[in-house]
Amino acid sequence: MAVSISVLLLLVVLSVVFLRSGGLKISHALVCVLLGFFLASTSVAPTIADGIAVTASVVSSINP
User: Is 52 within 8 Å of 12 (Cβ atoms)?
Assistant: First the structure.
């Protein structure tokens, strides 16, 4: 599925505005979900998944 950069940019801007404005409503959460969905179909998805996996392994290796 090809996603244009303009759609991703619009969703990123909307997500940042919604999160900075305070409360996150259902419509705002939907925009964030759509952003995640569209990011998953880009070439950045494997990099994001690897970064999350590395972060999880670092956090799990920390002993309190």
Answer: no
